[in-house]
Structure formats: C-alpha cells, structure tokens
Amino acid sequence: MIQKLYTSAALPEPLDLFGQMIAQAPFALWMADREGDVFLFNEAMRSLVGIGDPDRIFGNYNIFKDPIATSQGLIPYIKRVLKGQVIQTVVMMDLSQEDFGAEGDSAPKVFYVRCLYFPLKDSRGEFEYIVTMVENITQEYLEDISLSRTAHELESANKDVIEREKRIGDLKRRQKDLQEQLMKLQGV
Amino acid sequence: MTAAQAVNLIEQFAAQAPFGVFITDSRGISIFANKKLHEMFQIHEHPSGALGYDVFGDSSFEALGLVSLAEKARNGEQIDVVVDIPRPDSLGAGQKIGRKEAITVRITCYALRSSAQKIEHYVLVISDVTETARHREELRIQMHGLAIYDKSKEARLVRLRELEDGVVRLEKEIRSRGAEPVA
C-alpha cells in the first residue's frame, strides 16, 4: 500500500521520487514554516502521534506552541534551527497533553522519542523551514536507563568490596595475633 | 504554502538533510546521493561521485557480515542496522571513497513501491553514529569490569565471615584458658 503524504497544498499526483521517499519512509516527520505552522507530515508521523483529520494540524498546530515542547523548555532550542543549527533531543511524549483527533486509538499515550530538528533553506538560501523527525526510542531509552542504573549500583557495590577487602586484611592480622597468643598459652 | 513550494521543499529535504541519503533504482544502482553522504565518506567528484554504485553487488558486504541483511533489503524488507566499517575506502570496488578512518553508521533501508507493489527504488538513510557507538562500547566494557567485581564481592563476603568466625573461636579459646585476648 502506498503511504500518503499530507500537505496543506495539494501536491501533483503521482508523487515524485522525493515525495515517495518521505511518504513511504519508516521515520516520522513533519515540516513547519518559520512561524512554526506545520504544512506537511507523513504517514509514519500520523501513525506515531495519532493524527485523525489532517486539518486538525494544518492551520491549527504550531511547533512553537506545542504543549510538550513548551513544558520541557525546548522552544528556545527549536528556534535555533532557524539560525542553521541541527538540534537533537530525547523527549518524553505524553500524548494525553495533545489532541490530534485520533479515533479509537489504543496505542500507548506515553513514550520516549528522539527528535531531530534541522533547517531547510529556501530558494534564496535563507533558513526558512524546520524539519522535525521523530523516532520512538522507548525500548532503547529504557535500556539505557537500566544500564546506567545498573552501572551506578555496581559502582556502589565496588565501594563495598574495597571496604570489605580492608576488613579482611584487619581480620587476618587479628587472627595471626590471636594464634600467636594461643600458641604461647599452650606453651608451643 | 503553494504546491510548487512544497514540491521544492520535498526535494530539498533529501539534499539538505544532516544525514546521508542514498537512493537507488530497482536494481540497487545508486541514482541519488546527497551532500552529507559525500562528506561522511569523503567521496570525490561531488555531487556525482556516489552515483552508479551497486548496493547489492558490493563484495565487501561479506566481510562486514551484511550479506543476509542485504538480501532481506533487496526483497523489500525494512532494515535498520548499525555497522562498523573499519575501512570505508574498501567499500564498493571501483568507487572513489576517500575515507580511510573507521566509521560506525546506522543504516535504515526501505523500498519504495509502486501502486502495484513493485519495488521501484531503495532508500538508504545513513547516520554517523561513531561517537555514540564508542560511548556505548566504553559503557559495556565498564559494565563488564564492574560485573566481575560484583561476582568477586560474594566470594569476599564468604571469606569475611570465615575470618570473623575464626577470630571469635580463637578469642573464646584464649578466654577458656583464663587469658584476655590481645587488643
């Protein structure tokens, strides 16, 4: 099945190679203009964030007013993209804070995503557009958290080992002294 | 936003992306490679140096352990893999790849299909993840070292208890002989 590309302006059909590349991509993306208004997104994005009617996005959704990005203090960073920067961040997405009009969506509402923001230049060479690519990395993120936690626990355990090593040394010396004392008492 | 502007931006997406984009025809012969891909692999003769490369006919894939994955990709399966390439300049015999330093890349490969489900193109999205992979490897090595310490911790605990018991026995023995254990 050919995936769709959703745009605020009707694109000529059929889509050209680059249009197909975005439409059929496994990665979710949308594009916004310099005011932050989204004018294009692909099927993977629709599926990831649960967009119902595309018109809930066009003219209504603005990346600079996104409640999740705002609550996590990301907006100033995202705006740097219009100065030519590429920004990558991990965000906890709680879709209960958003309403994209999905119907009967049973997908998890909270997940971790890696967001890559980068600029596109217009025909004059000015940074005018922002591409956001979003990847669900919940599994990878939780593994990383678990890895870090285990590393931390093992580090603490290692400190215990050093303390025990010292205690073993003390006990060995104590045992030797007591053995010598006992041998004297036994007249050996 | 007009349709013409949108079409232009869609084209510019591949051209200006901060990751490598590589598109082939239905046989796997490259017909598009963006600037980032050229930079990543130091491919000369920009912008056409990466064109004509046969993705599925690369003899170096065997050494990289990519043969079965390449076959899956050729059959239209979506592939997402991280690959260590020790000598990028050995890729694709006859290609002009200048990069000699090892690189670790994440490759996402997917097929573009016609409405009749025929594969018409393959897209490879390639990101340089060398630093991330190095960091993860360091973490794994650290984890391994710590795990060894963790295992030996149990043995030390047993030894500690044995010594404590031994000391208690000796002190008791000394006291039973009417003496006070040395401090």
Verbal overview:
The complex is a heterodimer of chains A (188) and B (183). Chain A has helices spanning 17-23, 43-49, 67-71, 75-79, 138-185, and strands at residues 5-7, 28-33, 38-42, 87-94, 110-121, 127-136. By secondary structure, chain A is of the alpha+beta class. The longest helix of chain A is centred in the C-terminal third of the chain and has 48 residues, at 138-185. In chain A, 26% of the residues are buried. Chain B is of the alpha+beta class. Chain B is built from four helices and five strands; from the N terminus they run H-E-E-H-H-E-E-E-H. Chain B has helices at 3-16, 35-41, 67-74, 130-176, and strands spanning 20-24, 30-33, 79-85, 103-113, 119-128. Chain B has a five-stranded antiparallel sheet, sandwiched between helices. In chain B, strand 4 (103-113) and strand 5 (119-128) form a beta hairpin. Chain B is rod-shaped, with a radius of gyration of 30 Å. The model of chain B has no long low-confidence stretch (mean pLDDT 87). The chains are: A alpha+beta (188), B alpha+beta (183).
Number of strands of chain A: 6
Give unreliable regions of chain A as ranges. Answer: none
**Estimated radius of gyration of chain A:** 29 Å
First-to-last CA distance of chain B? 89 Å
What is the 3D form of chain A? rod-shaped
Unreliable segments of 5+ consecutive residues of chain B: none
Portion of residues in beta strands of chain A equals 15-25%
Structural class of chain A: alpha+beta
Count of alpha/pi helices of chain B: 4
Compressed to H and E, one letter per element, the order of chain A equals EHEEHHHEEEH
Individual helix count of chain A: 5
User: How much helix, percentage-wise, in residues of chain A?
Assistant: 25-40%
Oligomeric state of this protein:
heterodimer
Could you tell me the number of beta strands of chain B? 5
Classification by helices and strands of chain B: alpha+beta
What is the H/E order of chain B? HEEHHEEEH
